[in-house]
Amino acid sequence: MAVGLSLRALAKQVGVSAQAISKYERGLDIPSSGVLLRLSIALDVKVEYFFRMRRVSLRTPAWRKRSSLPSKMEKSILSQAEDWLERYLEVEDLFPDRPDVSPACELLKNVKGPVGSLDEAEKKADELRTLWDIGSDPIENLTELLEEKGVKVGLVEGPDSFDACTFVTEEDEPVIVINRSMYGDRQRFSLAHELGHIVIEPVNGVDPEKVAHRFAGAFLAPAEAVRRELGGHRRTLSIYELHLLKHKYGLSMQAWIYRAKDLGVLSESSARNLFRQFRLKGWYRKEPGDSLPVEEPKRFERLIMRALSEELISESRAAELLGKPFAEFWREVAEKHDGLPADFGS
């Protein structure tokens, strides 16, 4: 559950049995209005949540996490993802001009294929860049690119041991959820890594995580761009040079060292020396210099604003879809966008 309550703990707060809660979840019984109100308070959701037309059940994800992520937190992340996606799909359903076939479903059909080595993962990244007509240039906003191509991207609350995970809906649409508290470079690499899980079918016993890592690095900084920026062979790389490249390509300094090593621009020993420097100075956790800004998915929000503007939904319905009071939403907008007034949205 999104709030991290066990079935028994939730039942105690609401004043019913755990068996009753289980029946509500499985659609075998309907709670009374009083129980609904207590459930909404305990789960910190509006009562309207229980009357949603859309319900989703996401398939088992590929977790990008450290082994310390407890099962209870995995369930919380899954619950948050399903709640967000239900709201997302409901607002999409308001627009009849939405394509019947998701571009992301087409992505799976046209690009997804077997990968049996790290070199093949590199080629898969180049193939996708060619299909999306982005050449070898830096990707300014990876989140916007994925949303444009039909991949749904959402932010969830999670511990530092959780980065991101990929789900597939019952309609075979890919969904990526990421930890909202990450630095921008870690976020972008996690998104590219999850994109790798979407388009790669590991074969010949290759490690799915290793090929997804190689895909991510190649997608964010293609081999052509790496050699253009660094040259054919280097004995070392300067810290400031790595910092500038990080901000140009949205790829961390340490990931740039890996790219240079993987492509033979740096020798294994040269790369080890650089990584040793990062460890000794504590830069392996937070790299020196200013961080990359975090990217935020905006398509869902734009759809809600469109529906509100076209009077397809009320402000209270918009608030329920946004998952927060409307006044709070506009306060956040004003803080992010130089005092943009709430009545600007009217």
TrEMBL record:
Determine the domain of life of the protein's source: Bacteria
Gene Ontology molecular functions:
DNA binding
- HTH cro/C1-type domain location: 4-50
Q: Which Pfam families match?
A: HTH_3 (PF01381), Peptidase_M78 (PF06114)
The text of the family note is: Belongs to the short-chain fatty acyl-CoA assimilation regulator (ScfR) family.
Q: What is this protein called?
A: Zn-dependent peptidase ImmA, M78 family
